[in-house]
Amino acid sequence: MADNEIKTRDQIPSEYKWDLTKLYSDEAQWEKELKEIPVLAKKFLTYKGHLGDSAEKLLEALHADEDLDRLVEKVSHYAGLKNSADQGDSKAQEDLNRVMMAYTECSSLTSYFVPELLSLPEEKINEWIKMPGFENYRIYIQKILHAKPHTLSEKEERLLALQSETSDTASNVFSLLSDVDLNFGSVKVDGKDVPITHSTWSSLEENQDRAVRKETYEKFYGVHEGHANTLAALYAGSVKQDIFIARARGYDSALEASLYGDKVPVSVYKNLIETVHKNLPVLHRYYALRKRVLGLKELRHYDVYVPLVKSVKANHSYEEAVEIVRNSLAILGKDYTDTLCSGLLSGWTDRYENKGKRSGAFSSGAYDGYPYILLNYKEDSIRDVFTMAHEGGHSMHSWFSVHNNPFRHYDYTIFEAEVASTFNEELVFEYLLNNADSDDMKKYLLSMRASDILATLHRQTMFAEFELKCHEMVEKGEPLSTDSIRAVYRKLLEEYFGPDMVFEKSSDLEGLRIPHFYNAFYVYKYATGISAALALAKRVTEGGEKELNDYFNFLKSGGSRYPIEALKVGGVDMSSTKPVQDALDTFAGLVDKLEKLL
Q: Which of 21, 57, 286, 313 is most buried (most C-beta within 10 Å)?
């Protein structure tokens, strides 16, 4: 497949794209509502200085605030989705920037609200929110009160709001550089030129031909090497921004600032890293096994993704993948599977890669419109079936949250989101394993599942440790440079991969190409998420109606509870290290089976 065979956006059939008319029928309607944002912001501004006049006045202000925020969410959701579909589209870039400018102006006008609300006697606020009419805002206000120790004065909040547009500069530049500007060339596969992109990377690194993997790896990281200083400067800038906000708001650290809003103790983050470190010998056993099975004298970084079972090929059309997801999730009921699969086949999902499209996959839910899913589906990668189920879990979580909560209480945290997504992945694995038609297929699935758990639990914890170390360096007054960032990452590579891995000079550049690092202290939630998901999947599949209802009650919680409380409703306690250790034990069990089978 030549480079020009990656289609442009307009060459993708409409039935394979998401349906954004659920948000806006046309661009003109979006333009009209974009212009409504400053109008609603100025209306909300009229309540400044009057929030404490009466309960009725506060309730009016809350209604006006909701109208504004819901419109901003809808307008920005539309612009963000269009930009993700083609980041090279200058009109989409311009529209997204216009939304950001409107949001920044809006934030500066409305920044009075939280400081003024918090200046009122807490007893009065708690008395008012018990009154009729406040039902849809009660939890929202209680969460604002929780943030009181780190909420600044009105003038200070306005200054922070005014700089919000520039705060994303490092992330935006990284995204454009990585997804649009960098050209990684191509590699020959079976006599054909295959372009190396973020989307094709996974399938190329799974190729059984080691020469293909090696060439792909060297070209990919060779391009990153040529931009290492720029990438390092961007990441260092993002870290400094995190620390600036944390210090401005009076947190002890950027980590605490990130976790505080979810009421997640810092100990949960650090205990995750400690627990995984205690279990690294099992991970090292896995890599030693991989080296033996592949028959390699040296295990290289480009050897860690290729399937261990060479004789099994998995190829599924998009529609076949949807049916696998449907059958795998049957225990969740027909209403669940019909809703999800209908969305996957029409409306919700943008299926295939096109030039300029954001790499990877995501689910993007909002109160209005569909819970949209971006995929870059490849028929020859079984992991893309799991990705479909994963993002479908996010979207169904959004669907349940929207349909069971008012606007102010629907938005759940990322800590919870990664549970619903990896729960679905586990059910897909169990379904495929139980329906495997050969021993080789079972070996393939077991090896693939071990690799996936490793990627979600061990690797994300390594990423989380990298983020923590980089932020702590700056907090201690140690500058982040290209060399220091790479040194931190290389040491972690060596610790996690163990003695059987031989790294390339460029291997530590991996730490400069991960987009999630621009949303600090995000990736640990994948590790806690899979730990909770494995526990809940086992609980639901081995349980009865109560356990299933508990899980749906968790999905329906939305933002009405703090995440650890919501997961307790579902049946798992993430304040304990037990779910993490149980997940690591599950991985150890897979390694045991693979050692016997392979």
A: 286
Asked if 513 and 231 count as a contact pair (C-beta separation under 8 A), the reply is yes
**How far is residue 287 from each of residues 153, 209, 300, 446, measured CA to CA in Å?**
53, 19, 10, 15
Q: Give the residue numbers marked as catalytic.
A: 391
Annotate 289-330 with three-state secondary structure.
HHHHHHCCCCEEHHHCCCCCCCCCCCCCCHHHHHHHHHHHCH
- CA dihedral 407→159→175→457, nearest 10 degrees, is -60
Given a cut of 80, is residue 244 above it in pLDDT?
Answer: yes
In 10 A of CB 260, how many CB atoms? 19
Q: Is the dihedral of CA 519, 520, 521, 527 positive or negative?
A: positive
The token duo for 33 is: 């509502």
Indicate whether 3 pLDDT > 50.
Answer: no
Tell me, letter by letter, the H, E, C secondary structure of 382-403. Answer: HHHHHHHHHHHHHHHHHHHHHH
Residue 15 has pLDDT above 70, yes or no: yes
**Spatial separation of the C-alpha atoms in residues 2 and 548, rounded to whole Å:** 48
**Pair 260, 511: CB distance under 8 Å:** no
Structure tokens at 245: 């906000």
What is the phi/psi pair of residue 208, to 5°? -70, -20
List pLDDT tens digits, range 40-79.
Answer: 999 999 999 999 999 999 999 999 999 999 999 999 999 9
Query: What's the rounded Cα separation, in Å, for the pair 239 and 519?
Result: 10
Geometric angle at alpha carbon 179, from 173 and 183, rounded to 5°: 110
